[in-house]
Design goal:
Blueprint lengths: L7 H12 L5 H15 L5 H13 L4 H44 L3 H27 L5 H15 L4 H15 L20 H21 L1 H16 L7 H12 L5 H13 L7 H33 L3 H4 L3 H28 L4 H15 L4 H15 L1
């Protein structure tokens, strides 16, 4: 039997507390499951698994989308918004603070040594993410073909957004439909379709987005880039990194490779999804207004997709061509991550100490050591050794 359901305010407080200690993608989903199904019994297990399946099938950071799904099931649209904002707010506050400190003190010798070492840790993390992402996706020669095609296309300068669209088409043409082991046909009550509230939120967002165009061309462009990244980032937060690298570093030159890698490193020591790196990018591009615009933009499309698609997901996941397209897109992201691995590896001035540090970090990741411990220890070693 389900417990008494919290108000939207109660959801915000619960997810804010959870967001303060939410580190590591799969671990974050497990923490949300513990909060919503076991500790409080707001949802049953089948309903929660159905929500995770939805969040894995659409673009965006899976953990924070799962928070929105729980809020949606508990208190409708207001609950989804409360849970989403509550879960993401601690990460935003901490990343903004770290970004301010980074800009002010990054020329200190100790911080130069720190981030030189963290670059190596970031390379290890991206290699591990590519391995973890790819082992269950690029498991058939047709999937591998899409993966290699994506990596080669990105290497030769083809837009990753075109690569993703092409991979979806190839997936529909070449792949067999697959159903993830967590995709279940639950008998839970359908999510209520709240068209009026959804349209109202969309109108408010579009008004604010349009206002940016007249207030600041830079803020508008920054928000537009982050919106586009989130719309195409299938497979979780790490899938956004190749797109962000292309848009922020390669295409527009807002940041250089090293600074972008520093932002990713900071994203690993903050709670919440890795795409909170958008806050860092926004701050370096246009200060606090840029941080706000980039953060809101990177999280908005995936929020709307959760609240719009959730009521129809039981039917959508049985649509064969939709699942085949998603599989093709996910395979392409393995290839895009391979490109990021190569790009970041080439950016590090390797010596024996860095090689040993990178190997140790990758070994620890493969042995499931908490990523926060790895980054923290790597930072300490960097300050005293590099």
């Amino acid at each position: 039997m389900l417990n008494r359901l919290p108000t939207a305010k109660g959801l915000f407080v619960s997810f804010f507390r959870l967001g303060l200690t939410a580190f590591g993608g799969p671990a974050m989903v497990a923490q949300i499951r513990e909060l919503s199904t076991r500790r409080n019994q707001w949802l049953d297990d089948a309903d929660f698994k159905n929500g995770v399946a939805l969040c894995q099938s659409i673009p965006g950071a899976i953990a924070i989308q799962t928070a929105a799904y729980v809020g949606l099931r508990v208190q409708g649209i207001p609950g989804a918004l409360a849970a989403y904002c509550g879960f993401g707010l601690p990460a935003f506050i901490l990343m903004l603070l770290l970004s301010v400190l980074y800009v002010r003190f990054n020329s200190l010798p100790e911080l130069i040594s720190l981030f030189n070492g963290l670059q190596v840790i970031v390379v290890a993390i991206i290699f591990y993410a590519t391995y973890a992402f790819g082992r269950n996706i690029a498991n058939h020669y047709k999937n591998i073909l899409i993966t290699l095609s994506a990596a080669i296309s990105f290497w030769f300068g083809i837009s990753p957004f075109m690569v993703i669209i092409g991979a979806g088409i190839l997936g529909m043409a070449l792949l067999k439909a697959s159903v993830s082991d967590i995709v279940v046909n639950s008998d839970t009550k359908e999510t209520k379709w709240e068209a009026g509230k959804i349209i109202g939120l969309l109108v408010i967002f579009l008004i604010c987005f349009t206002a940016l165009y007249f207030l600041s061309a830079m803020l508008f462009n920054l928000a537009a880039v982050m919106l586009k990244i989130d719309l195409f980032a299938f497979g979780g937060g790490f899938a956004a990194l190749p797109l962000m690298l292309h848009e922020v570093v390669i295409n527009r030159g807002w940041l250089d490779n090293k600074t972008f890698m520093d932002g990713i490193a900071l994203g690993q020591v903050t709670p919440g999804p890795i795409i909170i790196t958008a806050t860092f990018v926004g701050y370096l591009v246009h200060g606090i207004p840029g941080a706000l615009a980039a953060t809101i933009a990177i999280f908005t499309p995936s929020f709307f997709m959760v609240i719009i698609i959730a009521p129809f997901f039981d039917r959508l996941k049985n649509y064969v061509y939709f699942m085949k397209a998603v599989d093709g897109i996910l395979a392409s992201f393995v290839g895009l991550l391979v490109f990021v691995c190569i790009k970041f590896t080439m950016n590090v001035p390797w010596d024996m100490i860095r090689i040993l540090l990178g190997f140790a970090a990758l070994t620890a990741l493969l042995r499931k050591v908490d990523i926060l411990y790895i980054v923290t220890l790597g930072a300490v070693i960097s300050v005293f050794v590099l």
